[in-house]
Design brief:
The chain is α+β, with helices and mostly antiparallel strands. It has 6 helices and 10 strands, in the order E-H-E-H-H-E-E-E-E-H-E-E-E-E-H-H. The strands form 2 sheets. Strands 2, 5, 6, 7, 8, 9 and 10 form a 7-stranded mixed sheet that branches. A hairpin with a 2-residue loop joins strand 9 and strand 10.
Length: about 230
């Protein structure tokens, strides 16, 4: 997929300039929040469509929101801030031998197209022989991982000291059914120089709203989020 070059944020005119300068110098400038979300309606909506699968569906929602909440598209470039016009996803894929690889999920606003391309990427990663195929130079992405074995309430990611230092990271956990509810842990980890709790809150609230009315978000004709 051809990507448009990122723009530069006018840091001098940025309302968060002081916070940017303050947190940029921290040894550990990231903060993480964990919550749980109810994916029961999303699971039902995907089943009724008969294609896509639940895992790809919640990755799709996450990427739609990451593209909609602008600071999730900000990346550090030295003392500059890049603004990517669009971000994609990468996610871990477990292989039969217990190793894992990465699948790159190109963001497409149409869920069916996203799911078809994403399923092919996951299949390639699952069948691959290389340990990891990373695109460390590409920061126009969101790092995702899924831990279907446990329902966590706290999470911490490994970090690579390189170009992707400021890439947001998401983690999805085991889904536990409680009556009509299906609770899934959601972890969001971001760079504090680029955003605050307000922006993470907008992302999480958007995710919750999408899960209440998933059909609208999965519908290609929906204009709820670009």
């Amino acid at each position: 997929m051809t990507m448009t070059a990122p723009a530069l944020l006018d840091v001098a005119a940025w309302a968060r300039r002081d916070a940017f300068e303050f947190f940029r110098g921290f040894d550990k400038p990231w903060f993480n929040v964990c919550t749980r979300v109810d994916v029961a309606r999303l699971k039902q909506a995907v089943a009724e469509r008969g294609r896509g699968g639940l895992t790809l569906a919640y990755h799709f929602l996450a990427l739609r929101l990451a593209n909609a909440v602008e600071p999730f598209r900000y990346r550090l470039d030295g003392e500059r801030v890049l603004v990517h016009p669009r971000v994609n996803g990468s996610t871990t894929v477990l292989r039969e031998d217990g190793s894992f690889g990465f699948a790159y999920l190109d963001y497409l606003p149409d869920f069916d197209s996203f799911a078809a391309r994403g399923a092919a990427a996951i299949a390639r990663a699952r069948a691959g022989e290389k340990l990891l195929e990373l695109r460390l130079e590409d920061t126009a992405k969101i790092h995702c991982t899924t831990l279907p074995w446990l329902h966590f309430s706290s999470f911490s990611h490994a970090r690579h000291a390189g170009p992707d230092l400021s890439v947001p990271k998401l983690a999805f956990g085991r889904i536990d059914v409680d009556g009509a509810r299906a609770w899934m842990p959601l972890s969001v980890e971001v760079h504090h120089a680029l955003m605050d709790g307000l922006h993470v809150g907008q992302f999480v609230q958007g995710f919750e709203a999408a899960l209440i009315d998933p059909e609208t978000w999965l519908d290609a004709s929906s204009a709820a989020v670009t």
